[in-house]
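Slide 14.
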Amino acid sequence: MRRLIPYAGAAAAVAITTALIDFVVGRAQIANISMLYLVAVLVVAVAFGRAAAIVASVLAFVTFDWFFVPPTHQLVVADAQELFSLALFLITAVVTGTLAARERARAQEAEHREHDAKVLYEAAFLMAEPDLERALVAVAEHFRAALDLDAVSIEADADILPHPAIAARDDAARDSLRAAGTQLQLMDSQGSSRRIRLIGPQMPGRTRDNRARMVPIVSANQRIGGIRILPRPGAAELGPGDQRLLAIAAAQLGLTIERARFRKDATEAEVLRRADDLKTELLHAVSHELRTPLASILASAGSLRQRDVEWTERERDEFAGSIQDEAVRLDRVVGNLLDLSRIENGTLVPHKAWHDVGALVEDVAGRMRPVTAGHPVRLDLPEDLPPVELDYVEIQQVLSNLVENAAKFSPAGSEIGISVARDDGDVRFEIRDHGPGIAVSDNERIFEPFVRLARAGQGPRGVGLGLAIAKRLVEAHAGTIWIDRAVTDGTRIVFTLPGRAGVS
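Slide 15: predicted structure.
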């Protein structure tokens, strides 16, 4: 029925023009009034295209001959000059209508290409989203809306996209897209296509839906996925322009998915490289820190077991104390390694509760007395400190690591300061020592795992995990930690924790 509309429009335009000419001729004689039919032909060409314009030209020729060329109401032309004029009019009408229809087609093609370019540009913009799954869902919804489809699904290999990215008008369209027995239409970038009928199991009482179409996604001559589309019920088949648009979109998606695959492979390779570097650093750093206490423990235990030597009680206590100190040191090293491993794996999650930070700092100062025995410790704890939501054990470990570092790298007898204060809604912790300090170039590197800096002529000491663990635990509390460069004597390490209620 829709195919007849252009020809009906052509007939209507000719009829209206005929009535107009009859009205004008009845009141005045106007030369070449038949040219009004050219206007009708042009209107039909612009509105309905070339075929309708040719039909309008022929109808205008016949109608003018029938009604206005003597003898009227006959398809006979008595005057040869009139016959020539009619023939010239017909040729002019056909040529004019064809040219107008061609320009109309070009204008429509330009509009379609502009629309396609805009759709593809917006799709390319959506594909730039780093999260591939979220990007493909947005692209699927974009094409569903642009082409007025019931549903669109973008599928890829499971190692890249575990679940299809689906955009559907409603749940019924989503279910229909997944229906078995779907007819797939494989399209290419030239607009040609072929169909494959897939027969699958069918649920009892359900009719088979064969409206779905598939555009393959190809990369490096290998099919890596597809765009499954479901047109609206009763909608016309996708035209060559839409098929070409989907084929180009599939090519873009192929590049996007392939980039995601390369990015994933590169990330895995980088993870493996960093793991290998971490293992190498771990072996280098731990080889001394584990072997030294073990050697001391073995030597002290071996000395105690010697039967040919009479040890005094004082000497036995010294051996036992050495064994205990080295075992504690060994336990601290192993604990730090385990903590770093859990932090890197994301399994060490803060269990927060509201705590008095003043009591926390005093508790840490008391526990660290054996470590700070050669240093006076000064505490600066205002009485109006607010409670802070934190993991007591983890922040206690942060403070312990920082105090231990301060004691380790400070001259004997120098003071270690621990202070807490409000800082614009946050709570600010400062640990100050009077050691050799840290070079400006090492401000950030000092917080990396297994980084051990030699200070004041000393060799590297420790495994280099204390500050790395402290940084990660503070950041897990949404806080920050840094080296304060305002001091010129020694080192001051500062970290802040959110002090406002509800901050996590």
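Speaker note: The two ends are 66 Å apart (CA to CA).
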